[in-house]
Amino acid sequence: MNLSTPRWWYDRDRRHAPVTRMLLRPAGWLWAAVTARRIARTSPVDAGVPVISVGNLTVGGSGKTPVAREVLRLLRQSGVEAQALSRGYGGRLEGPVRVDPAVHTAAEVGDEPLMLALDSPAWIARDRVAGARAAAAAGAAALVLDDGHQNPALNKTLSLIVVDGETRDHEWPFGDGAVFPSGPMREPLSAGLARADAVVILLPADLAAADPDLVATFGDLPVFIARLQPAAAPPSGPLMGFAGIAKPWKVERALRAAGADLVEFAAFPDHAAFRESDLRALADRAAVFDARLITTEKDWSRLPPDWRERVISWPVTATFDDEAGFSELLHGAIQSSPPGGGGPRSGGGG
Question: Which region holds residue 30: left if phi is over 0, alpha if psi is between -120 and 50, else beta?
């Protein structure tokens, strides 16, 4: 069962939910220890082609999938046959399977791989090594590993960390630094950054600049600023919004910032499987305001086919302030990768 993300996770002030934090902290220590042990004891395998990992340090909500899509676009635009590789979280197929948006559903391959497959060849595989080999055999010249920072199975040519740049209203992407379930971290910040090659701070479209304190957190690591931009303005007229992502409140805030006439907003757990009763309740509530339903592209992909005609999909894209510099980083990593793959992050990468 998916649970809603506690908003207090992203507040640096430990006075919020202090008892809950204290009770959950031992479980967080255990989670961190298990993660560190798994990474230390795994010998990464060479995929035979360069692997660019796009991951994060928190359990969700950083925007890594839009960044992975942009990495794929930039590489393919320059002539590199880059393909996506994902675990396929939320899908029942184990893979390796090449995702076909015209055939597969989110229940089969997961919602994020469906999004990636809209623009580029994308594969899902619970066994990342098997997935990498299948993609390489099918012609991939480079792999973009979605959500791979804590998965040590493959050698990483380049490890990118995506960080949510929203710091308004007392938010902080790492909360108080506590590891799940006491906080949002998958592992301690210092451990995750030690395996990273660069950081991408993803800003909402209406935030002018990244918080200097956040940028300073990453020390000497290269930091690139990207912005989550709507692919189009929200449609006019009353809208009833809903989302089942790690930080649904970000969708509400983005819709309002983009000028949407948002009469109400409903939040669901991350990767929620929308039931017929959920959707009927949303439609009934929207009818009260004579409003249309709107959701994210990711959530729209999980809707039953008959509901997709009744709900507006509102896609967003990641764009880099320094696209040329970021592209240079990507291509420099690929060109420096020895024949047969591998690269700088050949051991213990996430």
Answer: alpha
C-alpha dihedral (283, 288, 294, 295), degrees to nearest 10:
-60
The residues near 213 (Cβ < 8 Å, ≥ 6 apart) are 167
In tens, the pLDDT along 50-64 reads: 999 999 999 877 889
Tell me: the pLDDT tens digits for 189-232? Answer: 999 999 999 999 999 988 999 999 999 999 999 999 999 999 88
Torsion-angle region of 238 (φ positive above 0: left; ψ -120 to 50: alpha; else: beta): beta
Q: Which of 119, 123, 202 is nearest to 165 (CA)?
A: 202
pLDDT given at position 349: 43
Q: Which residues pair with 226 in a beta bridge?
A: 202, 320
Selection from 233, 243, 175, 247 nearest residue 205 by Cα: 233
Query: b/e map of 204-234 (b: 16 or more CB within 10 Å)?
Result: beeeeebbeebbebbeeeebbbbbbbbeeeb
What is the length of the chain? Answer: 350
Report d(CA 7, CA 165) in Å as an integer.
16
Contacts of residue 281, Cβ cutoff 8 Å, sequence gap at least 6 = none
Tell which phi-psi region holds residue 214, choosing left (phi > 0), alpha (psi between -120 and 50) or beta: alpha
| Partner residues linked to 82 by β-bridges | 142
